[in-house]
Amino acid sequence: MKRPHVVANPWQQLRRFTDARIGLGRAGTSLPTHELLAFQLDHARAQDAVHLPLDLARLCADLSALPALAPLGEIVQLRSRAADRNQYLQRPDFGRRLHEDEIPRLHHLSSNTEYDLAIVVADGLSSQAVQQNTAPMCEALLSALHNDDQPWQLAPTCVVQQGRVAVGDEVAEQLKAKAVVVLIGERPGLSSPDSLGIYLTWQPKVGRHDGERNCISNVRPQGLSFSEAARRLLYLLKESRRLQLSGVDLKDRTTSDTSTIQNGAKNFLLPS
Amino acid sequence: MSTAQSLLMWKIQNDAYWHFLCISSLINSFKALPLVCNMRYSYTLGSTRYHFTNLAELMAKATPARAGDRLAGVIAHTAQERVIAQMALADVPLKNFLNEALVPYEEDEVTRLIIDTHSADAFAPISHFTVGDFRNWLLSDAADGATLAQIRPGLTPEMVAAVSKIMRNQDLILVAKKCQVTTAFRNTIGLPGRFSTRLQPNHPTDDSTGIAASILDGLMYGSGDAVIGINPATDNLAQCQNLLHMLDEIIQRYQIPTQSCVLTHVTNAIEAIELGAPLDLVFQSIGGTEATNTSFGFNLAHLAQAEAAAQSLARGTVGNNVMYFETGQGSSLSANAHWGLDQQTCEVRTYAVARQYNPLLVNTVVGFIGPEYLFDGKEIIRAGLEDHCCGKLLGLPMGVDVCYTNHAQADQNDMDTLLTLLAVAGCTYIMGIPGADDIMLNYQTTSFHDALYARQVLGLRAAPEFEAWLEKMQIVETDQPAKLVDAMPDTFARTLEHLSDSDSSDARAETGQ
Fold first, then answer.
1. Least CB–CB distance from B296: residue in A29, A40, A211
2. What's the rounded Cα separation, in Å, for the pair B18 and B23?
3. Contact B286, B110 (CB under 8 A)
4. Residue A247 to residue B297, Cβ atoms within 8 A
C-alpha cells in the first residue's frame, strides 16, 4: 500500500533474513506513522511480559514428564528472598539469595557424594521464556549429557521463583554440586519476549562473580536452537570439568556445523 | 551571631582522623574494609550539626537521588540532607581529593593509576579552588576549550564527579559543550558540529546475512561513522573471527572510511590478533574499581597488552586510537565491588581507566543495566548528562547509548529528551540500530532515524571522511549532506540482485513459512 509522504525502502525484502526493524521507510527522516505505533505496541507488550507470573505447577509437570529427569526425584520448588515482582525488580541482592527457609530443605537433599551437576531454573525477567523453553532445553541437555563418555551425576532439579542468576550458586553449594547450570528468563525484548539464558558456573558458591561464569544466550525456537545450545553447553561442561574452572578462562572453541558458522562471511553484500 | 549568618556558616573540619571506613550498616556485608586516612566533614544548619564521616559518604549523599545508591544504602536519607551534603561538598578544597583516596591505594590498581598519573603542573592553576569555585570557573568565560584541555591531566575523576554533583543539567550541557575531544582511526571523530553513530547490526544467532541486512539498512540511513560494531551472540572465538573477517571485507569492498569492532572480551581480542584476524578496535567493558574489572575478567595489564597489539597492526589510516570502551553506572555495585561509593563516582573513576589507553570511542550504556540502578527516565537522563560531561572533562571521546530496558520506567519520549540534550551538549556519538530495537541484547536504544533527527534539528553532520563517502555513494544529496537520496544507490541496489534462491528458501524454512 502506498502511504503518502512515506519514502519506502527497496531493501525491505531483506526483512526475511532478520527480525531487526530494517526497511521501515521514512517520513522526512522520521519514522512513518504505522511503524511508530507498531513499536509502541511491542513495547507495551514487553512491559506487561515482565510482570507475568510463572505457572509453577505447569512448569513442574512439564519437567517431571521428561523421562531423563524423572529418576532424579521431584522437582524442588524454591523461593528467593524477593517477596514479589516489585521487590525483585528493585532488590537484585534479594533475587540472588535463597529464602532462609529453603536452606534446610536443600541440606536434606544433598548427597554424601558430590553431585557433578545441578540444574537450576529461575524465572528471571521473562516467565514466558522459562515456561516455554525450559523443558525442551532440559531434554536436549540431558540427551547430550547421556552421550558423554564420562557420566554426570545429577542433583535434583530445582526451580527458583523471583530468582537471579547467582541464586544458582547458593542452591548448588547447599546441594554440594561441582557445577551448576542456571536456565533463566532473559529480559524481554520487543521482538523476543521468550529468550532463555544459560549460565554455567564451576564450583558454585555464594560470592562467585560474573567473570567466573560462561553464558549461552538467546535460546528459543527463533534464536539459538535447543540442540545447538546443548551442544555448546556440553562442550563447556566437559572443558569445565577437565580444567576445573569456568568463566573468562574457559573459552568456547567449538567449531559449529550450523549454517551461521559455515557460511562464514558470505552474504549478499559479499558475493563470491 | 545572627540567624542568617549561622545559616550560612559552613564548617569544614579537616581533623585528619584515622578511622574505619564504615559507611552504613547496610554495606557491612562487603569485603572487610581496611584502615584508611579519613577526614571528617560537617556542617551546622541552625542548631543542627550534620556529620559526614569522609569524602565517600559526602559524595554519595550529595548525589542526585537514584535507585542504585538507595540499593547500596549510601543515599541521603532526606532531600534536605542531600542539599546539605551538596553545600558541604561545594566547600571542600580540590586538594583534599589528592590526600584522601576513596578506595585504598594499596588495594586498588585504579586508585594507583589515578594517583600515579596525576599531573601537579596541570593542576596548579586550579589547585586553590574548592569544588564550588571549580563549578563557577568551569561555567565562566575563563574556562574555554583550550584551557580545559590543558588542565585535564590535573583532574582526578573524584574532583570531576564531585563538581558534577553540584551542577544542574544545563551546567552539565554547557561544560560538556566546551570540551573538545578528537580521535581518529579511519576517520576523524569528535570535530565541532559533527555527530557520529555506531552502526550496531546485532543478530541473535550472528547470522551473516541477517547482520549484512542491518548493515545495509544503516548505511542507507547514513549511519556507521563511529564504528560498525557487532555485539556477538556468543564469545565463541571462531565466530568472532568470522565476524571480523566479514566486517573487514565489507569495509574494504565498499571503501567505507570507518572502522569495525566485534565487542568480545579483551582476552579474545588479543587471541584473535595473534591468530591474524583483521581487527580494527579492541573492545572491553570497564569499571571504576579493580574489583569491578576482576569481575569482568581482566586487569589493566590486559588493556595495555591489547592496545599495544592492536596498534602494532597499524590498520588506521588517519589515526591510531585503537580502543573502544563501554561503561555504565551501576556496574561496580552489581559486581559487589563499589567500596561504599555512589555509582556515579565509580563511573567517573572508570574514565581514568579509559583515558590511560587512548580510546577512539567511549560509550556509557546509560540505561542498560536496569531499573535497580537507574529507575526511570528522569534518572537515566540525569545519569546520561553526568557521564557525558564528566567523561569529556577528563578528555574522553564520549558517546552515550541512549537506552532503556523493558523493566525500567522509561520509553521513547525519555530517549528523545536525552538524545536532544546530548546532541546540544556536543555528544560525540550515539547508537544506530534498526528501529531502535536491539534484537540480540533485548533493549531499546536510538535508531538510524533518531540520529538523523538530531542532525537535522541541530545542523550536525557525520565525520568528514564518512560524509564524503555518503556523497560519493549517492546515499545523501551532493552538497546537501543532511538530505537522503530517495532512490536506492546503484552500488547497493545491485547487491540485492545477488540474493540467491537458496538464501530465500533457507530464510523461509527458518521462519516456518
1. A211
2. 14
3. no
4. yes
Residues 6+ apart with CB under 8 A from B66: B75, B329, B343, B344, B373, B374, B375, B379, B382, B383
Distance between CA atoms of residues A143 and A27, nearest Å = 52
Neighbours of B8 (CB within 10 A): 10
Distance CA A236, CA B84 (A): 53
Segments of chain A with pLDDT less than 50: 257-263
Q: CA separation (Å) from B395 to B145, B416, B425?
A: 11, 26, 15
Interface test with B, best of A260, A263, A272 (most B CBs within 10 A): A260
Instruction: Identify all chain B residues contacting A226, using CB atoms and an 8 Å cutoff.
Output: none
Q: What confidence score (pLDDT) does residue A255 get? A: 67
| Residue the block writes with cell 573471527 | B241
Distance from CA of B258 to the nearest CA of A (A): 16
Confidence category of residue B45, pLDDT binned at 50, 70, 90: confident
Residue B35: exposure state from Cβ atoms within 10 A (0-12, 13-18, ≥19): exposed
Q: d(Cα A127, Cα A196) in Å, to the nearest integer?
A: 10
- Separation between Cα atoms, residue B189 and residue B193, nearest integer Å: 11
Tens digits of per-residue pLDDT, B390-442?
Answer: 999 999 999 999 999 999 999 999 999 999 999 999 999 999 999 999 998 99
Residues of chain B positioned with their CB less than 8 A from the CB of A20: 201-203, 210, 213-214, 217, 433-435, 437, 439
Binning pLDDT at 50, 70 and 90, where does residue B326 land?
Answer: very high
Separation between Cα atoms, residue A74 and residue A56, nearest integer Å: 13
Average pLDDT, rounded, for chain B:
90
* Amino acid, res. B199: L
**pLDDT tens-digit series, residues B277-311:** 999 999 999 999 999 999 999 999 999 999 999 99
Closest chain B residue by Cα to residue A36 = B435
Rounded to 5 degrees, φ, ψ at A20 are -60, 150
Domains and CATH numbers, chain A: 6-50 (no CATH), 54-243 (3.40.50.11240)
Task: State the ipTM, two decimals.
Answer: 0.89
The annotation status of A165 as a binding-site residue, yes or no, is yes
Nearest to residue B130, comparing CAs of B2, B37, B288, B14?
B14
CA A142 to chain centre: 16
- Give the mean pLDDT of B219-241: 94
The β-bridge relationship of strands B227-230 and A179-185 is unpaired
Q: Give the highest mean pLDDT range of A98-107, B327-336, B344-353.
A: B344-353
Residues shown for chain B:
513
